[in-house]
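pasting for ref. prot 1 ->
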Amino acid sequence: LIFPTELTDMTELNHPIFDLQIDAQTGAVSILPKEAPFPALLNARLGVYFTKNGNDRVGLRDTWDGFTEGPAWSESGEHGKVKMVRFVVPCHTNAMSYEITFGVVEEYPLVVWKVKVLNQGDVPIYVDRIELLRLVEGKDGSALKFAQAKDPADLGFFHNGWQSWSPVGWVPGDGKMPHTYLGPMQAPMIINDGTPTPTRKGEFGSDFFAVVGDRLARHGFVLGFLSQKQQFGSVYANYNTPFTLKLWANGDHTRVDAGQSMETDWAVYSPVLLDHREPLEKYFEAVARENHVKLPAESPVGWCSWYYYYTNLGADDVRANLKTIVDTQETMPVDLVQIDDGFESQVGDWFTFKPRFAEGVKVLADEIKQQGLLPGLWLAPFIVHPKSELFKNHPDWILRKADGKPANAGFVWNALDAALDLTVPEALEYACSVVRTASKDWGYPYLKLDFLYAAALPGIYRDTSKTRAQVLRMGMEAIREAVGPDVTLLGCGAPFGSMLGLVEAMRIGPDVSGDWLPQFNGIGLFFKKEPSMPCARNSINNILTRANMHQHWWINDPDCLLIRPDSHLSLAEVHSLTTAIALTGGSVLLSDDLTKLPEERLHIAEVLLPIIGERARVIDWFDAEMPTKLRLDLLNETGEWHLVACFNWTDQPTPLSLSAQDFQLDEDEYWFSDFWCGQVKRLAKGEAYTSALIPPHGCVMGIFRRERASLPQYLGSDLHYSQGNEVVDWEAGKDLLAFTLRLPRKAAGRVRLALPWAKASAEVEGQPAELTHEGDKVWSLPLKFDGFVHVTVRKE
């Protein structure tokens, strides 16, 4: 690493992992690692871009000719002790002054900083961008030094999309960002106005946060924000020459009146070990602390009407599925029944109903509660269909562009939709009245709030002193206050930073569908590369790439599980969707017509219950554009085992090879049990399990369990996807094995055991049972039980 040698007027904040150096003479900021593999940021600049009297201006770019407060330790309510320093730049030109605050968190590997802009003149200014980091290699001594990477191919960039449906994931340093080709039809929904969407190789944009990484040294850093209460934050990187890295808060041309100020959220830098068990854990935890996130105890399990009925839904359809849910509770216990889009007369007109919901939806909530289940309801309180009565009767509530036309909220429901301007008090109160009525009067304690991005579209707001992020945050805080703390809110189509601490669950990907690739009106070829249109591929991509947000920021909602045989998904694709949902720990909602599901398809859902709720490690999150390897470590009376998954994302059938080393496990002798095909194999040290041909887009889900040759071992079952969590008691001796299985449902299936005995017999609940030797040390035992069962196996 090359470090600067001649720095003047330097303020330095030290941390065990890095030093933060700020040169007020030149306005340069450097982050210098003490452990060589981490990249070094040298001589980055800050800047404020604004308009005054119709002219574009730039401030805070060079010397900070002012005074310094600190450094001194400060006690942060969220992050513990922080060593802070504040630079105050008094008014010199343009009647603008600035405050720049830096901090190094004592307990966590975090650098935080923010900028405050003060208008001390007599006319308004309009802030376009507050640049918190600008590094252009070779300019003003700026550089980003990596330990081993020599060219863009050695680097990677992990980008986060603006909202639920936006593309997210790793891109190689010489690769291209995924992007939409649908322009104004979809771009307003998934792209933050102000975040770049580059199409050239080696150029990348990201929202809220990004990860820059050296793939050879396996080190990198997170660059982003701790919240988005004030502005939507953007990251831009260009790995071509000259290497460029920028981080800024979008000002949205927001008005700052004379005597007023604008302050950013905290920007953040945090080093990352790319192969760590939880590489982004410290950043995610800091964001959770900053936003006072409180997590629900469990992930929801239930049924949603959308992916079978769509808008062709009636109250009788809900009742028919409710009856099936009640009738199958013994084998498939679920608790949530969520009515999705299709009940309202028009999107925006939430208090009038379609003829098939002539009685409204309150009566259905009552019926669901009478069965001891939780009623849920879909709403989209911020978006407005142009054919709605709301649109016609309240044109002053609609967000508009400079030309007076409605702001474009994207193509939905066969129209370009509009949005409410939540800075209009009556519009905000209407949105609040919708959720208040649904929760308090209609009796829905679970609300799925969709298309929330609509409140943060670019447009001319009535109150031009608020950024788009402030408008959306204000709207969501009002929504939360309207429903109260006991109502569960699921955000969907929502910019993430605006939801933190206000929703319990969050959709983290595009809509799933019964197709592997996107289609529209039966046309697929033109849309197959679209990264955010509804389809199983796009849904699974975000399930995996955002898995690590689960249990940090909210309960992840991976969208619904489709298991019906008459969709366009193959059984292998259904298994991949099931595996991705199961191993990432979020909510599990079925969305088929349950009255028509055959028994073998219902079994796919049954084996997921109860859900574990824990998220797997995504092993290749920084090496694959669509991750292929998951690992979840589990432990109970049977010992430790590792639930893994490996995916075949190609369009050709191929065998998959799974070794312990592939999943960062120690080399040892293992048993491997393949859940979907039922195969069990003993693996020597260094040996890999090789599957049969896996169909296109299929997977292997199985467990690695270290062999213990002298004692009986539990090898798995087809009763539960964990292949082990069903065991609650386990006593293994030299001549006797006794164990208990427990599930909150009726279950039937087969367990497999490794027995170090030539002959053995079994009893189930004290009665002789059929114990079959399958070869090697593997024995199997069929079981059928209601809730729990006791098993004894004896050496003969």
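and prot 2 ->
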Amino acid sequence: VFVAQHVASAIEQQRKADALRASERRYRQMFENNRAVQFVLDPQSGAIVDANMAACDFYGYTRDELRAMRIWDINVLGEQAVREEMALARQQQRSYFVFRHMRANGEIRDVEVHSGPVEVGERKLLYSIVHDITERRRAEQALLRSEEKYRNIFDYASVGIYQSTRDGRFITANPSLARMLGYDSVEDLLARSLEDVYWDPAEREQLILRFEPVGYASNHELRWRRKDGSPIWVQLNAHAIESQRGVLYFEGFVYDITERKEAEETLSKQSAAIMASMDGIGIVNDRLEFTYANESLAKLFGYPNAQILLGRSLCDLYEPHEQVRLITSIVPTVSQRGRWRGEATGLRRDGASFPQEMSLTAIDGGSMVCVVRDITERTYAEEQIKHLAYHDALTNLPNRLLFKDRLTVALSHAQREKAHLAVLFLDLDRFKVINDSLGHNIGDQLLQAVASRVQMCVRESDTVARLGGDEFTVLLPRLGHSDDAAPVAQKILEAIRHPFHIEGREFFTTTSIGISLFPEDGVDAETLIKNADTAMYQAKEVGRDNYQLFNALVNAKALQRIALEHGLRRAAMNEEFRVHYQPIFDLRSGKISGMEALLRWTHADLGPVPPATFIPLAEATGVMIPIGMWALRQACRQAKAWHDAGFKTLSLAVNLSVTQLQQPDLVACVRDVLRDTGIPPRLLELEITESSAMQSPETSVRTLYDLKKLGIRISLDDFGTGHSSLAYLKRFPIDTLKIDQSFVHDITSDPDTAAIVTAIIAMAHSLRLKVIAEGVEFTEQANFLRRHACDQMQGFLIKPPIGADEFYEFLRMQ
């Protein structure tokens, strides 16, 4: 049994050995005879353990040479990269690689390698199959380059390119087409369709029906639509991309021909314009004979048609003296310079002459183009324009320019003859009210009527001019005496006072007149006009409806006013103002309960300027609103600082000017100041005067109630000096009445004044109003006010207005 088992085992081992040899023989045959390049590699050392004949043929090495090499000897990536790839293949994490291998002759080939682990005996090796993909890679790269070249052509072509479906949806488009059609990007264009692009969408369908049978369309000119809706002319070349099932899509090439179409249209219009032109146009040869003439030229010279002019000389259309000028001067100029343009007198067929503008231009062959235009109407218009340049269009009176010229001439005569002359400057009183309330039509008619009346008051040798608006000037030359100007001014005043009847209505107006005299008030036109203007302002200041002679004092005041006005504007821009504070004394508690903020200004040259002077000027010049809002903000900011310093119940009173009270956004501005400064609204009191409130009572009432809604208090200043009725006093949402200092001054010496003050206090208290007396200077006045239950007072008895730092020290001493 043992022998039998031993024999069986030996037979089995022999069978396995035969099978192994047969398998190795088959593997060797497959390995050797396979046309694919194959390697067996040692993954640790990189040695080429074995290589088949295909590998020897491909790389140009013998089998022994390959077995003596390492795999990175033929791989251009180098050892480290190859080791990393072999490690991935050994761990079966990756089996496919692309390398660049070098043949024995130095040629580089692109290869793809499939690798995997294999055991040979006890050795763990790698089995690799190598395929040459050099040609495939080259083909792929060539295709990529071709596609890139196409994409570059597509993207950067100056011509617009697109592809679209049969129903008009864009498949793709290049940037040039997007820019051409005014779209921000290609994506923006692709979101639209060709129906959005065609000016007439039906035109696209008609075009397809025409070119679909032949498969293409060439040089079709169409009107498309840009994104903004404007038209664009394009030239379209399109063709269909087809398959066995029909049209896949359309591809089009688009050229912008808008400029060309516009040029063609312009040329067409020019050609039509030459034929239809109102200008006479003709061509003459070197003998000045017409070889072409349009109908307008014939009509211009009174001929029935243009054919009659052909062959006639250009000279036949002009009088003898113009013919001489044409031949001896004009034609030689054209020969030298190529063209001539000027005015001439033409001769019509019936012998009538007319002014014309003519141009001659040399062209090839010695001919000239002649263009003739009848300027009869233009000549008349130029005369009219010249008249308008020196006259006022509304009144037909001389304007400033002509008046100044005539004044200059009159001054020359006056200087030679040692005579006198006068300049009157007139300005209608309150004309703006009529113009704004009744309309410019009524205002214009009134100005015309005034001009007529002034002219009736002067001599024919005098000049009445309108400078503009409601300002007139009068020149009175050759006066025997300087005093002769005043009666004329008085005559004008009386004429203007009479009522004017316009459109069935009666109007009354007056005028203020300033007079300057030569040589007393100036020796040149500018000075006399300026001084008369200054005197006119003086006439307005003393009550209007009068005349004033210029004098040095008036001029000095005017100059001072101008200096103040300029300084005021500069001060507003540079914040040169200061806010002073006057304490308000509570008569019941015996303590300082608040302060009134007062604006102060020190002019750089003139020194301190009283508020009574600069505030009306600020109102008149339009800078009161920014100044007033600055003062309000500054005072509120300072009051909040004192509150934070411990004086938490201190109230602040700030004056509102007339202009501020009428300011449309006053409530919003005050709200912003309260928010920005943080002052409690209940501690802010805005002071208005009776006069300012009565400028526009209804508007004032609405504004004051809106201010009250913010939580602030309203004070009526200078009570008793205005002209408001008690009815309006009841309507105004007032919290405080301030008795004017003119009453306080006499309360201890004048029983009537004392009675008025007592009545004001009693009335205010009956209306539940607080009363403050201003201008208290003496103890007797304070005692009177205390006895009659006046609530508070302010004045020099307590403290005059002082700066913020001094006021703070005053508070600390209380």
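The radius of gyration is 53 Å.
DSSP finds 30 helices and 31 strands in the chain.
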